[in-house]
Design brief:
The chain is of the alpha+beta class and 177 residues long. It has helices spanning 21-28, 31-37, 45-54, 59-62, 108-123, 138-146; strands spanning 11-15, 65-71, 77-87, 92-99, 128-134, 150-161, 164-174. It contains six helices and seven strands, in the order βααααβββαβαββ. The chain has a seven-stranded mixed β-sheet with strand order 1-2-3-4-5-7-6, with helices on both faces.
Length: 177
Amino acid sequence: MKASFFAGESVHLRAMEPEDLDMMYAIENDPELWDVSNFSVPYSKYVLKEYIANSQYDMFADKQLRMMVVRNTDNEVVGTIDITDFAPLHHRGEVGISILREHRGQGYGKEALSLLCSYLFDFLRLHQLTAHIARDNEQSLRMFKSCGFVECGVLKEWWCVKGMFKDVVLLQRLAFN
């Protein structure tokens, strides 16, 4: 039996805590991330505080799950990882990940994604995960593909970023592949 689905060599995943409010506020209100998150307005600290307080931390109740990506050496939060559009009937969900700019390129995202996939496939028995990645986001595409996701389609001009339309690659990972 695996000791913990949420503990890796460099990072671990944990539930949101009230002290994560400022970091979540920074991520949710970063206009550079709005392009890939389908949000276009800032969140207030009040709304985020309510979100943290009212989350049941139950994917089946909330239909989503957000976890904090925490570096093991100093317990610093380096990002978030989410499951959204969770459909229990169909055993699937969509993955989103955001690693703070200063912590990118250090393997934290890949390890967090691997941990989350292990939990979702091996413990919750999901059948598939999907992700939407801008075609020009080569680093993110490489990371997802290195974790077993495969390209299954391209959505032409799917996201409008700074007045320009971008193609989005639809990635999918099936359980036990």
